[in-house]
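Run log, item B.
One chain of 217 residues. Sequence copied directly from the ordering sheet:
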Amino acid sequence: MLITFEGIDGAGKSTQVSRLQEHLQNQGRVVLTLREPGGTPEAERIRELLLESRHDFTPVGELLLFAASRAELLRKVILPALENGTDVILDRFFDSTTAYQGYGRGLDLDMLTEVNRIATGGLCPDVTFYLDLSPEEALLRKFSEKSLSLDFDAENLDRMESSGLDFYRRVRDGYHALVAASRKRIVQIDARLSPSVIHQIIISCLDSIDPVTGYRP
């Protein structure tokens, strides 16, 4: 099973990925957790390029770097794992491209669909959990976390974090559009709920998936 998590930074994806991994492993399942961009040496180098604030990529350049990272991860890690019966939990996948580069950066959605298709070979998650949070709340969470660090610098944001609130509002609108168009696959969850409640919603959803059709009721 391929399970993906989506949402803007600060929504709590990492926490839920970790909890779900532990839950599935306790059931005796083999689980692999990955993040995008990243997961291979080449993809991790691309991640560094994309997040370093000193780089100024065009929207199309940014899109193609994300796609290159995804293609490497998919063919070298994700597909072999799925073929071996491993459950893969992925922090971000092609929905992020549509939300961030499509709605956020304003790139043509038809072009994005084709780029995503090429990068993924048409692979689609069995289920996607979208943790919904306003950009304002997410920013408060991010700064709260950073302020606990001794080397915190309010100006030391990565390239994506420095894109501004309007950008993240458009990204959130994009996610809402994706949820509306893919209700059988994408589960929207209020990220303001407690981590334990969110985890239980995720487990209940996974338990309801039909093992034959792969669809939720």
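Observations after the first pass:
- Residues 2-208 form a domain with the Rossmann fold fold (CATH 3.40.50.300).
- The first strand starts at residue 2 and ends at 6.
Flagged for discussion on Thursday.
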